[in-house]
Amino acid sequence: MIEEQVSLWGPAGVVRSAPSPGALDQYGRYFVIGGLVGVMTLLLREGIARITGDTPSRYLLSVLAAYAIGILVSFLLHKHLTFRERLATPAHPLHSALLRFTLIALIGMALTGGLAVGGRYLLVLDAIFFAYSGAVAFVIASLLTSVVTYVLNARLSF
Question: Which of 41, 97, 101, 121 is 20 to 30 A from residue 70's alpha carbon, by CA?
Fold first, then answer.
């Protein structure tokens, strides 16, 4: 007897087989690479903030600049390590995958920027975390956004 489960991400009523061990391994790679790129991006954001200052508008610019650099690093690492695609094929040309990945990353960037600024200033994280409130808001926003971008990239980019 084959066990099946309903996909949380598929259309209503679609029954799919349970995730294979390879899919769980893929998610593990996605999580580790995302974490490493996330740490790099966080450190980059902090460095930009030290140079430019930390007003609300400059904070948003530092989040967006760091995120943009993270997009490029993330694409290369996920393409080769997470989804293990080495060569472009006529069915999956490199520029097409990069375009889809970039569009999903831009959606993620907007979501991260909105969640980070909203979390920091609307939830008054400055009063709780003081000098670390920008980093805390950015980490929380990035983690929440990563769930959305993983699903979209697994389905659309690679």
Answer: 121
